[in-house]
Specification:
Layout (H helix, E strand, L loop, with lengths): L13 H22 L5 H9 L7 H9 L5 H8 L3 H13 L4 E4 L7 E4 L5 H20 L3 H20 L16
Antiparallel strand pairs: 1-2
Helix pairs in contact: 3-4, 4-5
């Protein structure tokens, strides 16, 4: 069932708007989880074999969305420490789900990529996964897309600058996730 923004919310009432936006984000996440295509079977098998869990998904997602990232770029994109991202890349590499190789342009840099044998199925998975996002963005003007990207960046900045709450990992890493 589709739901539009709460039209009854007075846009000057920031508390009501905040609640409406948070509720909409929750719905986006839940809908994306429900309709997301299953990852390629080879990845599922490797994850089970190596006891990988949901906490590895953001790293894999980052690599699948942008081939050839360094560990520090992965950490930056998903908001983890470099040490945690490195650990997860190592676990994914041992499972054969990602590969690490020397950057030919800068031999001090290691790039993380999807293995060649998984690349076609990862590309198909990525295309299907991004479909609703692409469709929604196509319905916005260029200026509206720019505003959305800016708003999301500000929201991330606000969430990342606040100290962690009680019971949260102070490094911001989703170790137990």
């Amino acid at each position: 069932m589709a739901r539009k923004a709460n039209k009854d919310v007075d846009s000057s009432d920031l508390d009501a708007v905040s609640i409406d936006v948070a509720t909409q984000f929750s719905r986006v996440i839940n809908a994306a989880k429900r309709r997301a295509p299953a990852p390629p079977q080879a990845m599922i098998d490797a994850a089970k074999r190596e006891s990988l869990g949901p906490r590895h998904a953001p790293v894999l997602f980052a690599v699948a969305m942008s081939e050839g990232l360094s560990v520090s770029e992965i950490a930056d994109r998903i908001g983890l420490s470099v040490a945690t991202a490195s650990q997860m890349v190592g676990e994914l590499s041992r499972a054969g789900i990602v590969t690490r190789s020397e950057d030919e342009r800068d031999r001090r840099r290691t790039l993380v990529t999807v293995p060649a044998d998984l690349a076609p199925s990862i590309r198909a998975w990525r295309t299907e996964l991004l479909g609703p996002f692409r469709n929604a963005l196509e319905r916005l003007t260029k200026a509206e897309r720019a505003t959305l990207v800016k708003a999301l960046a500000i929201l991330i900045e606000e969430n990342e600058r606040k100290p962690p709450g009680p019971g949260c990992d102070p490094a911001g890493d989703a170790e137990g996730a």
